[in-house]
């Protein structure tokens, strides 16, 4: 149906961006491509800019933001730009020279100001621009491959150069609201260069990865359009994880196959315009150099067949048990967290529907910039106890700007307003606006249960980090602080009010990501209440050799979740149809 | 001509739009100063988070920080002497220092042009 993906396509392209929603196989495809090109004798640099990167897990090597050779692979260097770390380096550069010269309290207050979400985002972007424009890197490597962040975050990252440039051009008062990068004027040229490289088809190719699933294709189409709009036109698509054959007598196998084929029938028109490749669904996990090499050879089975284990499948509680517990404990706020693509939206929706069925009043909302709640509830549903909403960053920014300007118009003249308007056009405003909207949603739990399907890991953490920072700042601020913001963090930390549900798949990357997420949450004094393992093939009885092979690889991850990570664990078997609409979501809970 | 220096606490932007809420006082000061600077008056504003160097270059400011800590910022210097701390100058004070009509800083928008859409009249 589609031609097989061949990295040879990029022989003459220096910068390759692999992007797509978390969990579609972006990192493994980027790694496999990097290894393939390096094996052919090309000098390759592989860089991850994902705040929740798992490049290290896939390559099985420790990485930092300085490129280092990957052991056992000639010609391949890799680095991992951890935005938190980049921000820390940035902070130290600014603050370091003043230690001892200014009082410790002043140093501390500088550090605090430079630890906000804006700084983190900007520091990461800065690193990314530096790599693209560094002549030493351009000369040393034939290919620089970026394994980028989940879609929403990447889009913002890629949109920044345009946003900054417009902002700098229009700014008449020296860009006062660019605190974290006060030396920005000097960077103008650098950022312009970055934009140029990104939109130059001879230098840059953008490879979108998608799953053969309706929601994933829909998402890819949206990304493709948005990227095209900001001038990145050299795009291609990889449909990853395509099941090539199936057993007609095996229910799961044929459903799995049919579902993929159905999804491909609805292949979005916009995506058809570009080069489309496919990669097979494989029975082995895509970690380690050897397995990554098999991928482009189109092997669906490993070269060595492992001895069949006779053990029976593991048994874990079902989703309904989680809903029962929430119903009894009267939890007010439920957050589903985890890497994008693990089915957070579906799990959040199912929990919401389950609680409505138990007679509770529920509000379901999402802060995921790439969410598709409307799609999930695309049937007309009519239930007075359930309301849904989504936090759309663009709308929030508009509303926030209007609110600020209308408040200020009482005390400011025209010129003052124009001045304020300029500051409000700063990209930082988005973080603030989204954060406030998040706080408002949480505050609704006074009279109903609020289920929040949060953004992918990295973004959510930035959001929570802002919460902490603002919480500290409240004591100083003289402006009106909304009640919802004041009560947010204490509420998120109170286990009687808030439960965090970590959603994962029984696969290497999602589990390791989720483990890191849990650690970060615990550090922020938030203890996740339970883990849900979604779409488990292990919990089915498939005989399909490829699917059964994958089901076996799930075992150790299920055990790890159950025995090491989760206070409570539940499992949702792979289900043969996508649960769209209220009635279908209800089946999740009943089964 | 008088020279005014404002040493701000560590903050993201001088209009204060980057906080959990907008501080109207910061917005007033920012726009009043913007308007004075545009008329060519000698006013400098430094933010501890971005320009710590300015805080160490000025002995009066360094001493002030050592003694009272960053929570006592902003500190306002007129011709090199500390004239105010922990608060910003009012528009009256600004107009006195720069010898201009208070009205010019306090004035509400005068030139709110009225737009008439002719198509609606048809």
What features would you describe in this structure?
The complex is a heterodimer of chains A (591) and B (122). Chain A has 591 residues and is an alpha/beta fold. Chain A is built from 23 helices and 16 strands. Chain A has a 9-stranded mixed sheet, sandwiched between helices. In chain A, helix 5 (117-133) packs across helix 8. Chain A is globular. Chain A starts with a strand and ends with a helix. Residues 171-183 of chain A have low confidence and may be disordered. Mean pLDDT of chain B is 79; it is low at 107-115. The longest helix of chain B has 15 residues, at 24-38. The termini of chain B are far apart. Chain B is globular. Helices cover 39% and strands 17% of the residues of chain B. With 122 residues, chain B is of the alpha+beta class. Chain B has a 4-stranded mixed sheet with strand order 2-1-3-4, with helices on both faces. Chain B has helices spanning 24-38, 52-57, 59-68, 91-97, 102-106, 118-121, and strands spanning 3-8, 42-47, 75-78, 81-85. Classes of the chains: A alpha/beta (591), B alpha+beta (122).
Strand content of chain B: 15-25%
- Unreliable residue runs of chain A: 171-183
User: From N to C, what is the helix and strand string of chain B?
Assistant: EHEHHEEHHH
Radius of gyration of chain A, rounded?
A: 24 Å
Q: How many alpha or pi helices of chain B?
A: 6
Terminal Cα separation of chain A, in Å? 36 Å
Strand content of chain A: 5-15%
The assigned structural class of chain A equals: alpha/beta
Mean pLDDT of chain B: 79
Strand order of the largest sheet of chain B: 2-1-3-4
Q: Report the span from N to C terminus of chain B.
A: 56 Å
Class per helix and strand makeup of chain B: alpha+beta
Reported for the largest beta sheet of chain B, the result is: 4 strands, mixed
Uncertain stretches of chain B:
107-115
What is the helix tally of chain A?
23
Form type of chain B: globular
């Amino acid at each position: 149906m589609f031609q097989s993906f061949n990295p040879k396509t990029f022989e003459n392209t220096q910068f390759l961006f692999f992007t797509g929603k978390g969990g579609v196989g972006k990192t493994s495809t980027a790694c496999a491509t990097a290894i393939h090109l390096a094996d052919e004798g090309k000098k390759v640099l592989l860089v991850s800019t994902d705040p929740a990167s798992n490049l290290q897990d896939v390559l099985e090597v420790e990485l930092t933001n300085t490129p280092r050779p990957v052991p056992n692979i000639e010609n391949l260097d890799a680095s991992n730009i951890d935005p938190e770390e980049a921000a820390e380096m940035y902070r130290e550069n600014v603050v370091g020279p003043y230690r001892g010269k200014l009082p410790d309290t002043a140093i501390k207050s500088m550090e605090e100001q430079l630890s906000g979400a804006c700084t983190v985002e900007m520091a990461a972007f800065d690193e990314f621009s530096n790599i693209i424009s560094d002549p030493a890197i351009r000369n040393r490597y034939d290919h620089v491959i970026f394994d980028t962040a989940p879609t929403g975050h990447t889009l913002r990252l890629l949109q920044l150069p345009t946003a900054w440039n417009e902002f700098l051009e229009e700014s008449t008062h020296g860009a006062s609201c660019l605190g974290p990068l006060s030396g920005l004027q000097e960077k103008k040229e650098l950022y312009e260069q970055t934009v140029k490289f990104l939109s130059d088809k001879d230098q840059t190719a953008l490879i979108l990865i998608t799953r053969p699933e309706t929601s994933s294709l829909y998402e890819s189409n949206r990304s493709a359009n948005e990227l095209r709009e900001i001038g990145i036109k050299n795009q291609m698509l990889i449909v990853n994880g395509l099941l090539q054959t199936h057993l007609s007598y095996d229910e799961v196998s044929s459903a799995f196959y049919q579902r993929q084929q159905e999804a491909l029938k609805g292949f979005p028109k916009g995506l058809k315009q570009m080069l489309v490749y496919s990669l097979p669904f494989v029975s082995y996990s895509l970690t380690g150099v050897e397995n990554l090499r098999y991928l482009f050879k189109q092997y669906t089975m490993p070269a060595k067949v492992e001895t069949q284990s006779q053990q029976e499948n593991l048994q874990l509680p079902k989703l309904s048990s989680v809903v029962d517990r929430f119903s009894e404990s009267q939890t007010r706020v439920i957050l589903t967290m985890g890497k994008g693509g693990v089915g957070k939206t579906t799990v959040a929706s199912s929990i919401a529907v389950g609680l409505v069925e138990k007679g509770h009043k529920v509000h379901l909302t999402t802060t995921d910039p790439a969410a598709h709640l409307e799609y999930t509830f695309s049937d007309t549903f009519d239930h007075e106890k359930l309301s849904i909403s989504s936090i759309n960053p663009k709308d929030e920014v508009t509303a926030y700007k209007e609110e600020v300007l209308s408040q200020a118009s009482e005390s400011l003249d025209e010129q003052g307003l124009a001045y304020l308007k300029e500051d409000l056009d700063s990209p930082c405003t988005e973080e603030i606006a989204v954060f406030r909207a998040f706080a408002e949603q949480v505050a609704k739990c006074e009279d109903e249960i609020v289920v929040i399907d949060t953004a992918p890991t990295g973004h959510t953490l930035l959001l929570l980090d802002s919460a902490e920072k603002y919480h500290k700042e409240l004591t100083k601020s003289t402006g009106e602080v909304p009640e919802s913001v004041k009560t947010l963090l204490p509420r998120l930390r109170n286990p009687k009010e808030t439960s965090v549900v970590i959603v994962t798949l029984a696969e290497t990357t999602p589990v390791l990501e989720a483990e890191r997420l849990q650690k970060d949450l615990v550090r922020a004094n938030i203890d996740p209440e339970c883990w849900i393992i979604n779409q488990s093939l292990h919990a089915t009885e498939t005989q399909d050799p490829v699917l059964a092979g994958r089901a076996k690889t799930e075992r150790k991850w299920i055990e790890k979740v159950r025995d090491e990570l989760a206070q409570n664990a539940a499992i949702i078997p792979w289900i043969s149809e996508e649960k769209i609409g209220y009635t279908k979501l209800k089946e999740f809970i009943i089964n | 001509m008088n020279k005014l220096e404002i040493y701000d606490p560590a903050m993201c932007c001088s209009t204060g739009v980057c906080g959990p809420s907008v501080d109207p006082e910061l917005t007033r000061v920012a726009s009043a100063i913007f308007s004075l600077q545009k008329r060519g008056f000698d006013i400098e504003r430094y933010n501890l988070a971005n320009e710590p160097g300015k805080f160490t270059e000025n002995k009066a400011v360094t001493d002030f920080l050592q003694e009272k800590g960053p929570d006592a910022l902003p500190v306002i210097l007129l011709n090199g002497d500390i004239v105010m701390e922990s608060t910003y100058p009012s528009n009256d004070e600004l107009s006195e220092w720069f010898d201009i009509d208070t009205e010019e800083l306090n004035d509400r928008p005068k030139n709110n042009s009225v737009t008439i859409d002719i198509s609606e009249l048809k």
